[in-house]
Amino acid sequence: GAVVSQHPSRVICKSGTSVKIECRSLDFQATTMFWYRQFPKKSLMLMATSNEGSKATYEQGVEKDKFLINHASLTLSTLTVTSAHPEDSSFYICSADRISYNEQFFGPGTRLTVL
Amino acid sequence: DQQVKQNSPSLSVQEGRISILNCDYTNSMFDYFLWYKKYPAEGPTFLISISSIKDKNEDGRFTVFLNKSAKHLSLHIVPSQPGDSAVYFCAASSGNTGKLIFGQGTTLQVKP
What we know:
With 115 residues, chain A is mainly beta. Chain A has no helices and eleven strands.
């Protein structure tokens, strides 16, 4: 149990386009999901906290208009990278906070490459 | 400002020996600490955690020690196995926000 999926696993896009990444908790409900970004050989950096039915909370320095987050249901959160640029190329990972458990379960990540 | 630091980017140990991974933090408000294991191009998988009210937590081959006065925690793996080779991240959180602050990671290589 406690599986989190991400789709797509890899995406390559042209500069200026928008890319949507989905994060799903497959067998549990999550009122809160988190989005992280990891640069090569660097730490996972928390980008935002996604709460079902309300606006996401962004960390300092993360542009909310560039990284749109929608948490439409208890099992799905989406991250849309708008007007992508090469510097947005990174590994994006989501996690889901299982209700009543003090533990986060991570998705497998999405590798975004912007040409 | 790196609130959680793993100062050793890599560690190499022989199979069967003990692996000790270290982590330091600066924020005294952190009250929950976790260790994750990560393979390339995959998400982290949870290993073990410890609450700030404890100084030790053990789960099979994995033991986490917390020294609050030194703001230091460590993960001990004994005996180490080649399958333990991965990147290990420590993470910390405060309150019940669920927000995790990660260290930079330590790449562990266990040699047969």
